[in-house]
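Question (not urgent): is this output format expected?
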Amino acid sequence: MRYRLAFVLVTYGFIKFFPLQMPYPSLSNLLTNYGDYFAWKIYFQTVGIAPKYESFLGFVEILAAFLLFNRKTVTFGVGLIFGFLGNVAVANGFYDIGEQALSTFIVLLATFLFVYDIPRLYDLLIKETPAYANKFIPKFTDSRLRNARKGLKIAFLAFVVLFAYKAYDNYTNDPYKIPHTPGLSKAFGYYNVKEFVLNKDTIPYSKTDPNRWQDVVFEKWSTLTIKVNRPVKIDLSSGEEVHEKDIDRNYELAGYAGRHYFYYDADTVNHTLSLQNKNKNQRNEKLQLKYERPNDSTIVLSGINENRDSIHVVLAKINKKYMMFEGRRKPVKI
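Got this back:
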């Protein structure tokens, strides 16, 4: 039971210690209206925006796992689990994160391990009478049992080392929730749609027009997002799945309805972009665009949209300031 519980804590602990489970919010996420988020995405963004805090949470889980590894420190490990995972179980319920069963199961396992200490703690803390620690030591008289026990301990420690290495390698080289293909060089940023022409008809800025783009974001990776007054078929998944292809890495768009996300292939020789909607419910939306860069702050897109209409779009970069980076006098520390 102790090892089963420690196994779960180690896996979740390391993907928090190396901030993988809740990545730092993307630029598109920062430019999404609060009301467009699902509750679970708000929770993940709130934790992800403070990676050092997320690492601390992972450290607590890993510490609890190692306390469970030794029979003498199980009570302390269980105490950490109640304080930390108990809160996680409640958050999973209130924010509808989708892991209510697992987090509750972890707390129940910890309760099972703790129940034998309740009489002793009651005597010590409530009755204030002498209490004696549990000195039960199992005797493995059969050499095969002793060897099996040592082998399982070594296997568990090997798993911890291997998983820690793999988590670190994933964090430094290719975080599993973030696309790994670099975006268009020096295009990262937030752009106002200065001019929008549809089938040679110039459409003025509008918050209500279903065709007129309002703004565009180029991420550091191969994702382009568009704000337009068309409904988004919400991706109801948690974005936790591990995918090799960038177009399938859906954490950035899962759980909210604010923007349209497109994966793109950039041909830097012919200056073309091949876009496809990343939302699994809208994969049939594809755009073929040529791009020009008359200066460092302007990108001009022209070509065919998802409805086979011709479009011409002039994007002007906006140097938007964020309080978390700027602060009033210095950067804000969360």
